[in-house]
Each structure stands twice: as C-alpha cells, then as structure tokens.
Write a structure and sequence with these properties.
- With 319 residues, the protein is mostly helical.
- The chain has a single domain, classed as ABC transporter involved in vitamin B12 uptake, BtuC.
- The protein is 75% helix and 1% strand.
- A two-stranded antiparallel ribbon has the order 1-2.
- The longest helix has 30 residues, at 3-32.
Length: 319
C-alpha cells in the first residue's frame, strides 16, 4: 500500500477514530468526576438522534454538491402540523405519517421550485427558510395558545424511550445505506455531485436525482419532527431551531466532503451527530460556557474541513 493510499485510508477513518476517542474521553472523565455516566449516555442519545436522522436523509442532497438550509424550519413545521393532527385524531401513527408527508411535500416543493426557475437548490431553500419560519409563527398563533402547541404528555410516554428511538434511527439508516450504496440511485447521485456536466451528457436526469434526494431528506425530516414531539410534546417557535445548522456541522464532523460527489459517505451523519453531542457534553464537564463551546466547535469544524479536503485541493471540477 502506497503512501497516498495510506493517507487516504487514514483520512477516511479519522472521523470514526475521533468518535471513539470522544466516547472514551467521556467515559474516563465522567468516571473521574463521579458523574452518572449511564444517565449521560442516555442524554447524549436523546440529543443526537433527531440531528442524526435529519442529517442522514440530508446526505442525499449534500452528495449532489448542494445543501438545504431550511431543514430546521421544515422539521418545526412538520412537528407543529403533526401535533395539530394528533389533537384531532389522537393517533400517534397518523401523526407520524403526517409529519413525514408534510416534510416530503416541503422537500418536493423545494426541488420543483428550483427546476421551474432554474435556480441552484440552496437559493430556493433560503427563500423557503423565511417562508417556513413565518409559517411556524402563524400555526402557533392560529392553532395554539399563542406561544405553543402541545399534545398530552402521557400520549408519548410509551414511545419516549431510547430503544424506540434507536429502532427508528437504525431502520432509516439501513434504508438509506441500501439506496445509497447498493442501488443505481446512489451511484448516479455521486456521479452528478462529482461532475454535473458529464452526468448530464451521460443521460442522468438532474431533476430526477434532485427529487429523489429531497424525498429521502423529507423522510428524515419527518422522522426528526416525530421524534421531537415525543421528546418534548410542547412545541414552541424555538422547536428544532438549531437543527439546520447542527445538520451541516454534523455532516462535516462525520468526514463528508463539502463538495459532495464520489467521496460522499452515508455514515457521516451518524458519526458527526454523535461526535458533536459528546463534544458538547465534554465541554459542559469542563465548565466551559456556551460562547467558548461554540468557538471550540468552530475551530474543530474548520480543522475537519481542512483535513477532509487536503488531498482534493486543486482537483475539484468547476461547477
């Protein structure tokens, strides 16, 4: 194995090694400071799962070399409408399907809007972000108390367990792995993300790939909205407010190249989401305030981007 291959191999595994190192550091520090490690791990899982689910679906969009900045607002709108439907039907499963349906509709609307006006996807998602944020306030004012929309807490207690949430996360992850790694859809999306012009000349439909990407992302957003309701059945204008940025950071933390293409990894979302949450817990243990914590995350974010693109600088094809 040559030096170039060894370097590539190490860089590919670096995010996984980083997650393991953070996990070990959490266990060691938690034991040393006599912290309830089991409770801490449960907290990490609860904080990570929503971001991990949404980010896993978003990988399909990022693979195309684009990104959706409206994911957090879409999660909030889907959760609010899902909660409203539950209050009328008292059915958890109807609420789940409504959350997914609303999120998929928003994603499809984004892709269609980009196609009709021939605009980059990220441009339409910026416009959608403003629209969805306004819709969040409108839904709360019309259907809630003016500040929140809530469903009865006892209704979600049976589902507010780590086991149930992990089943949803792992099930969706395996579905995405199958589509991304073992079907033509994943290969075509990597090809398009790496070289859009060549992909177009090869007969790959850019619009079709965008629609599929937004459908998969919508399913992830819908599941994330459902899990948000289960975790906190009282929804406000701040529900899922940080999810959009957390998804971007998680994907990069997981070693996903910002350019998409052939080097995209479906597992980046999972690794990044859990790494980011454990890092946050470690900073809490060191009594770092939120400002310093954000600075540390920003530095690590830039470092990961630098390392992930170190062997690709100057090789990226023009878009």
């Amino acid at each position: 194995m040559g030096k170039a291959n060894i370097k590539k191999y190490v860089l590919n595994l670096a995010p996984a090694f980083g997650l393991v190192a953070l996990f070990v550091a959490f266990l060691v520090l938690g034991t040393w400071k006599d912290i309830n490690v089991a409770y801490g791990l449960k907290s990490i899982l609860n904080q990570s799962i929503v971001v991990a689910v949404v980010a896993t679906g978003a990988i399909f969009i990022y693979t195309l070399g684009s990104f959706d900045i409206s994911l957090g607002a879409s999660t909030a709108v889907s959760a609010l409408i899902g909660a409203m439907v539950y209050n009328r039907t008292e059915s958890i499963w109807v609420m789940l399907f409504v959350c997914i349906g609303v999120a998929v509709f928003v994603g499809l609307f984004n892709s269609v809007l980009a196609s009709v006006f021939n605009l980059p996807v990220f441009v339409t998602t910026i416009a959608m972000l403003s629209f969805l944020n306004a819709l969040v306030l409108l839904l709360i004012n019309i259907n809630g108390t003016g500040s929140e929309i809530a469903i009865p807490a006892p209704a979600v207690v049976p589902y507010n367990t780590v086991e149930f949430k992990m089943v949803l996360l792992i099930g969706f992850f395996l579905l995405c792995v199958f589509i991304f790694s073992f079907t033509k859809i994943g290969r075509k999306q990597k090809f398009q993300g790496g070289n859009p012009l060549c992909a177009k000349l090869s007969g790959i439909s850019e619009k079709k790939m965008a629609i599929i990407a937004f459908v998969m992302s919508g399913i992830g957003v819908g599941l994330g909205a459902f899990l948000s309701i289960i975790y906190a059945p009282t929804l406000t204008k701040n529900t899922a407010s940080s999810v959009g940025m957390d998804v971007i950071i998680a994907i990069v933390f997981g070693g996903m190249p910002v350019s998409g293409g052939a080097r995209s990894k479906i597992y980046a979302a999972m690794i990044g989401a859990f790494s980011m949450t454990i890092l946050g817990q470690l900073m809490v243990m060191f009594n770092l305030n939120s400002g310093i914590g954000q600075m540390v995350k920003a530095v690590i974010f830039l470092l990961v981007v630098f390392l992930a693109t170190s062997d690709q600088r100057g090789k990226l094809l023009p878009r």
